[in-house]
Structure prediction request, 997 residues.
Amino acid sequence: MPGTRRQVGATGAQSVTISFAGFNRAWATWIGDRLERRGVTVVQQRWDPPVEVPLEESLRDLTLSRGRVLLVLSDWYFQLGPRTHDEWNRALREVVAPDPDRFAAVSLTTSALPGATSVLGTADLTNVGADEAERRLLVRLGLPTEPLPEPVEHRPGPRYPADTPEVWGGVPRRNTRFTGREELLNKAYQALQDAGSGAGVVALYGMSGVGKTQLAAEYVYRFGSEYDVVWWVPADRRALYRQRLAELAPELGLSTGVEYGERLRAVRDALRRGEPHSHWLLVLDGADEPENIWDLVPTGPGHVLITSRNPEWGEHNSNLVEVPVYNRDESVAFVRRRAPRLSPAEADRLAEALEDLPLLLDQTAGWLNDSDLSVEEYIELLEGGIDQDVVKVSADFPLAFQTAWSILLNKLKDTVPESVDLLRLCSFFAPGSIPVRLLKEMPAGELPEQVSGLMNDPLLWNKAIAQLRQYSVVRLESHESVLDEASPGESLYMHRMVHQIVGHDMTERDRREFVDVVRRALAAADPGRPSDTRLWPAYAEITPHLKWADVLRSTDPAVQSLVLNCLRYMYLSGEYRAGIKLGERAMKAWRELLGEDHPRIWDLSYHYANLLRAVGDYAGTEVIERAAVDHLRAERGVQDLEHLRAAGGLAADLRGLGRYEEALEMSGWVLAAYRELLGDQDSRTLNAQNNLAVSLRLLGRYQESLELNRRTLEARRQFLGQRHNWTLASQTNYATDLRLLGRYSDGMSLQNQSVGVHRRVLGNDNPQTLRAEYNLALCHYRSGDRAKASTLFTRVLERCERVLGEGDPLTMMFAAGQSCFAREHADIDQARGISEKVIDGYLNMLGEEHPFVAGTRGNHALILRNVGERDQAHTLLEEALAALTQAVGEYHPWTLGCAINASALRNLVGDPESAASLTDAVIARATETLGRTHPLTLSARIAHAADLRGVRERQRAEKVENEALGDLVATLGAQHVHTVSARSRNRPYWDFEPPVV
Prediction:
């Protein structure tokens, strides 16, 4: 009788083997923890007996373990195989009844158990709290139930499985027919557990229909008790992903404002720091395009689980776990759960016909279970009843897959034909979440006849949706629209495989009608202002559908404007690579459709060139812009606005190529023309004024650049507002000029305030935000706050590499700054490695003669000097000095700064006279260019004093040094790092900072 059972340790060492179904792993883990705390040795044994092995033999194998065997009984424990209750009763009578003390059990189900389980004396753990469940477990095993003393070092155990994590959201309901996949679940679990902090990312990848989402959901339910936060995020669209992730902020108790970017930033920062919860799990479902969201994947002490068709996640610091189709045993077991009327042999034949693909097994088995059709008849229909050309998708999909969907679509046609028309219309949106609200908002007259009634008849609509959902073709999603947060949006979710099949299964007439409707729906949803950051979520939602609606083949002006606006959005938001792909396809398509000289071509070339220029392809953009300038000037004249726009782009190309004087000349007359045509206050005039300032800064004319940027900033504040992204860009430009003029405190004050607004308005990882943070790092560095500078340098570079890649111009600019900082204050080996990559990057992008190559080589020479390679450093610096002199002239600040460094190396290699002569010339030129008290001039004066001591002109050196120190105190302050360093007679150096072009 249960009351006379022996205690766990009565027959030897205290040990228990826990036998559990994989579905109940969390319970087994919790039970094992409770027992181990009381000194019991626990062995976990997952129960999954092979179907071909008699159940009695599998149960008998459990008795080979030491000590008691504890069975964790549940519906899934009995169903594995699956086995009938009669089989279980026979096995329990034969194996357990003769030796009942070897076995014990706990029950997790309220369902009826096989009658013979009474021999186990099962303890019921359902519908009770953790303390009562533990007490019942201990009583059943004959263990003491007194509370244990609190250990000195409290070790938190696994969460009680009946308790949900503190934060839980978006997780699909558990699939009670989930089958197999134990090895994949264990592999994913181990990969996450073995990953270091910030590296716990696992991507479940495989073809559509293999059950990646179901596998991720099962992982959550099995291991969710180990986390404090479980948050499920749809990741097929960047905008939806950002929105859903931002919704986590209130769940975490974060105090944020209403700004979209601020909520998202707060969530990512909280996850990174692990506050308030360090045990978190994020599931990113349907992330098929890593380049769209990989920069937004959170880091920190928690874990990220990704489902995707794309194995390129392996290139983004993710552990890949491939999800194949079922093995045959899994297929048979799953089909028999989905269609209990089928025998094992019939299930095997169906699995063979469908090649073990889980999605199709689910849909076809469910259909068969509700129909009179036999498996043999169904398979016969699959093999010959449908024209294969109609539904052929790719060679990767088997015959059965193609025909199974044709059968399903034919059935839908016979019941609610409008549902198939709706599917066909949706096939011209991108697969996944389809914003059908865009269609429902269109006037009925603009819809094809066969779907206009459907869209305007709620009863017919609901009937069609119900029919589609019945066969798991789509699911209905309701959420806040990103186009209008005040109104609810409606979307259909269509699986990619269904999308592909439907897209091929229609007449050419329907195809033309449907694609035209979707194009017009997308054009009508165009907010029309891609420079307005508040509308970026709308563009993020629209852009994925452009390809599927084949918008580049449309002659509708509204659709063409949508394409141009999306390109502009991609440029401003930093989605450069995606924008370049779209621009490249558009250039080819529109030239064929409209002709080489159509006005739209020049609009398109402007946006396409902006995107190419953003990634450093200045030679390529010069070709595009020069062709546009020449054609428009000849056709329309120099005062034409589109010609001026193209000329402004060409000036930017010239800046990128290092041809600064040409760029200045072109920028100047473009601005003059805009002022004459549009006046001083038009946004295009202000943009031209901004660009002229960039050209002046690149020529070292910082004071003139400052004055132009001041006027531009004031005008943009007045006409665009404080939070407009162009106003924010002007703040960074103005703060940059202040810093370059040595007004470090003024520049830092403005930039520090501006960075906060950048983050809230544009988001943390927008390129414009990154540039603002980088300038703030430089302001901190020049002001002497090395700790803040170090943090910002590192953070900005890491994020830019993640968002834009190592070869992006912005990344290389940031890397150059990081290398200079590391050379003086961190790791010289790190500085050298980064510096070498920067030089190679600029060489590949810009060529040997570009001043950026010479400038970064001059930086590298300082690293070589610091590691003792003086001769090589001297040679490299002299070459850099000559190259900069040739490229920008001997009066340019870059040349003057490089000369200060070169003079130091001349001293080190034994040529003090030449060093003194060089710094003497630098002082004269710097005074003329920048003024006597500019930091660069002051550095030259301090260096010259050192050089004079080197040639034994001590009295003159003393005079030069004292005057320079006095000016340093007056200009920067007595305690500024530059003043302190000069007073200590540390020779000054100069860093080349590659600027924005």
